[in-house]
Structures are given as structure tokens and as C-alpha cells.
Amino acid sequence: MVNLDGQAVMDWRNEMMKIPGSQFISLMHLYLGEIKTPYRKETLLSAVSEFFKNQDVRNDLFARLDGTDSVIISAICLLKFATEKKLSVFLGRIIAPEFLLDRLNNLKARLLIYEKDFKGQRIYALNPIFPELEEFREDWKIFPSLSGGDNNVKDISYTSAFIPETLELFIGVFLFFTGNEGVLFKSNGEPKKKFLETVEGIFPGISQEIASISGLPDFPGLTRLNIVLDSLCNLGLLCISETGGSVSSAVLEKFSALSSRKRLLYFLTGTAGLLSKTDFLLFEESLESVFDFIKDKDISPGELSLLFFCIYNNFLYLKDNGRGVVKEGRFSTVLRENSGAVSGSDPDSVILERAEKIFRAAFAFGILKVESGAVRIFEGFGIINQPVTGNRKSVIVESVFSVLVFPGICFANLVKILPFLRIHSFQTVASFSLTRDSVFSALSKGYSNLDFISDLGTEAGGDLPSNFLFSFKEWVADWNGSLVYSGPVFVVEPEKKELYECNKGFMECVKKILAPGVFLLKGKNAVEAAENVKKNGFEAFVYPDLDLSSTPDAKREGAFNRAGTGVSSGDFFTVRSFSGKKKPSANWSDSELTKAVEDNADICPEQKKIFFKLIRHNLILSPVQVNPFAVPFQVLEVSGMDYPGKMRILENSLKKSSPVRVTVNDGGVNKVYEGRCVRIGKDKNEVELFVYSEKLSLVLFLARISKVEEIPEIAGGFF
Question: Which domain of life is it from (predicted)?
Fold first, then answer.
């Protein structure tokens, strides 16, 4: 039991008072019976609250909740931001969308839930006068695996052939391999045959279609090559153009600064597609929460996307509720610079589709597996952020210019080593060679030869082979000796060169001394380089014939923004199992309530028909409600020559979109149609009826309609 929130009660009362007068009074009649005029809505709501304070009435109310009711209430609890659309997507595998609205309206008529405004949308909330409803937050019937329900895939097991402990090494190796390749794709978007042959030779099985396994998300035509290319491009690490691939150094530097756990989460989130910055944060945090959740919980593969959807919407609710939980810049982001996506713009169904893509990638790369129908995360996930201890070597360098790299290498060091090496094969261990061409290629792209030697030595655990170092230094010297420099050059008189060279600030602006008094400066262009020199106290002028309008394209900066700390999913999503609490028994059975209606002489036959339907819809809880004032008298059936009576029922169907049953004489044969009136002709001689069973509209002439019956629709009668 939780304490009543006074503001929540006021919100509920305010929303109830917005219900149109006739609908409001009909609802009040149902629970209060006779209502004397004049009346005030506030007084009637207080009377209804008093009615439900009776413990027997409350017990009957909750005893009549069936499994579908429980699932809907639980979904409203879990989603928080529960619009009709979100509920339709979230519950689509359990409740058909065409029946969901009727169920929601029924729960509203039973006063268990209500609608309220939230950020310009109508969302469903629990009625705060029933604090017992909060216990449905523990009801996991939406997730049968968690609620102790039958798991129909218990005999399914699946383990990927990919070793997840090698994923980080694979990402680095594949990134630089692809970034050094030439043209990758044909004009129609298909990979070139040469590229496929090369990539398959180095990464065996990467281009093979991943087989679909029963109980797992479908993998039609999916390959690990598709997944990794999509992710690296969406993260902005890999840029593919008509001339080939290239690595974004600025983005890679930020990516390398992340923890191993974050890199794994970012890689998987990148497979969802191109996301806005805010949505990327929501997706990455939601995925991390899912992984933390399933570490000690059994959940089936088919329920993963629903769990993700639930957590995602909770993060979205907290963000939109002004709690400042998810802010841009709060977590690192990896996104395309020119993304035009808008946060929260995806339809709810697309959120589920994107989640499916993420989990397909997680299965394909072995991050997730299935054992006896339950999803498991790979054993190394829990220790992925723990530092490697001991003197274990992650690199072996041989004197024949062969380099072996093992999983577990520091990623920041790995990406400084890889540009200088040529990949030969990748399985559990990555095999490379150092060649003159690979060294020249790395140096031409601006990678540091000093960083390469330093980090390679660190990961190799000591000195490098002498002939390896000798050849490497010789190749670097050859490259420098034949180099055509590009960049801003600063020239001073030879006799003043020592003044400049002795100034530490000035030398920080220098990339290389080309000759006495001739300095190659750092900077994207001449203007920027000159400004840097001026900041250190020296005069610098830009040569006038430079075309200042053409400056090199700036590399992507700031794609990652690190700030703040994470928020635990426990703030909104309590990890519990199904409570298994026994439901109270109803004090009055349906048969007893039906008998009370039949025995009441004050209720006419037309009213009794409505009462019977109210009982079937769990809106009559006690014989106290069985009185002629609970259901106002109305004619439900008109036949024969009573044209005005027929028109009243048809016009009511048109106005309220309520169902009717129409009997039509067609050549001496009576045909019965059930549907709702969608149009009445101006001369009132023809009626257009949408027929439910045939899902089409029929135009009927009033003269041929022998009988019209109103079908009492309980939920639609109130809302």
C-alpha cells in the first residue's frame, strides 16, 4: 500500500470533470443510482470515492480483473509515458489493436485508469484513489518468462560462432582494413567482388548469411559484414565514398577514450541506424539497462525488444518530465555530423524495429546467446572494464616483420599501431606484417611513427627486434627524404632563427624545421597558423597571393561529448519477479448479479438487456447498483412503420459511432447486418452502414429496413 498523492487525486478529479455532461452523468448513474438535481460534479466525484471506500466493493473490483486487464494496467505502470499508440505497439503481440481501445475504455468506465494531458499528448494513468494498483508495477505478465508463465522456446539454444572477447580487436582491425581499401561498392550499392573475396579471406565467414534460428529474431540475408559496416558508418568512424574508405581520426580519438564497456554498447547502438544525438543517448542507456537486467533474470529472445521499449520510454518520460535525466552532452555521443534526425521523431513501431536490429547484432557477434530458451550475456561482460593485470604480452613481434596481436590489447594503443601494419588474417588472433608500403601509407595519412614504436614496444612487453627497428627507421627516413610538404610555411632571416628556435611557445606551433629559418607550421590553413604565432609574441604575415577562401575541410570534432554520470535503470524500473499475490474472491458472482436484475420488477426489459451487458463487462459489482436509475430507459429496438424511431437509433449510431443491428428485406428474404451508421442521406431515404463482419460499407434504403436495434456498447457509452 502506498500513500495517496494529493496532487494526483486532484489531477484525476480535474480530468473527470472535463468529461461531457451526458457521459459524466451516465457514469455517475452507474455507481450512484438516482442523482438529484441540481448537482455539482465535485460532489458526485466525492460520492463515487466514498462508494469505493467500501472494502467489499473494492475486493469485487479487483477480483474481476482478468489477465488482459492486468497486462494493460501493468503496461501503463511500466511505460509511464503510456499513450494509446505506445500501448498499441507495446501490447501488439498480446492484444489486437482493434480490441485495445475497447479494453482501455472499459477500464476507464470501471474508474481504474484515466487520461490526462502530458506535453501536448493524452496519456493513461492509474486512478490514485486505488493505491493497490501500484502493485501491478510488479506484475510481469507482459513478459511471460519473468512472470513464471510458459516459455514456449525452452528447448531453443543458440551460440554464435563469433568469439565476443575478440570483438574490440575485430572492430579496430576491420576499421583500418576497410579504411585502406579502394572502391568498396558497385554503383548499385552491392559490394564489389574483389572486396568480398579479400574480406572473406581475412575474416572467414564474415560475408556468410547468418542462419535464422527458431525463437530468435529473424536474420533474412543478414551478414556480419552488413552489421559492422552499418555500425562504423553510423558512428562516423568510417567514411565510405566513391573513391574508397577512410577513417575519421577525430572520431576515433574520442571513441578510443571510452571504456571497453561503452565501446561495445556504442558499436551495438550504431547498428540501429542513423540516430539523432538525443535518441542515441536514449538507445545506448536503454541497451545498457537491458544488459544489466538480464544478467540475473531469465527472459526469452522474443521479449528483449519489449523490455528495451519499456526502458526506453521510461528514459524518454523522465527526460520530457523536466527531471534532466537525459541531456545532450550527458553521455558520449557518436553520430553523423549532418544528421537531420529529430529526437523522438521515430514512430513507436520503429523503436521496436531498431531494437530488433541491435539484438540481432548482439546475437550475431556472440554478445548474447540462448540457453534453454533464456537469453544470456557472454561471461566476459561483467569484467569487461577491469584492467588486465600481470605481464601478459598482447603483441608478439618477430624479426621477420611478422606481428601477432591478441585480444585484450589496449584499444587506444591498438589504433596507433594498426595504421602501420598490413593485415593477413583475423581469427582468434590477428596476424599482420610490417612492409615498406604499409609504413609509407600510414605516414602519408599523418600517423605518428614515434607513437607506433612506443605503443608497439609497450604492448610487446619490451625491446623490439633490432632488424625490425632498423628497417622501420630506414623506411621512415626514405619517406621523409622524398616528401613533398603541404601546409603553412613560416620564413625568418637566418641570423634570427636561433631566437625563434629557443622560444618554447613558438616551437609548439612548428610541425617540422625544413631548413635554417624555414618552419612548417601546424594549423589547418595559413590564417590559423599565423594567429598561433602571434599568440606567442612574434609578428606573422600571410603572403598576399594565398587563396584564403579555400581551406582544407575540417575533420569531425566533438562527435563525442563526455559529461556527467549515468542514471541507473532502477530509478524507474524496479527489478522484481512476479509477486504471485492471490486475488480476492468476488462477493457476488455473475449469476447472482444476473438473478438480481431478473428479479427486479422496477427494471424494464430494455434496461435489463443493458444490465446483462454491464455485468459481462464487470461494471456491476454489487446488487446495490441494480436499480432503474443506474441505466436510464431507452428504446433499443424499432420495427415496422415507426420511421422516426428508426431514424433516432440510426442518428444516435452516427453521432456516437455506436453499433447497430439492421434487418433488411431483400426480395422477400430478411438479411441481418451489424455495424455502425456512417452517413444518412439529406432526404433521409438512404443510410450508409459500415458492416463489421464484411468490413465494407453498404448503402441501404430506409423503406427496406424492417427493423433497427441498438447494440448496447458499454465502454463507448461513457467515453
Answer: Bacteria
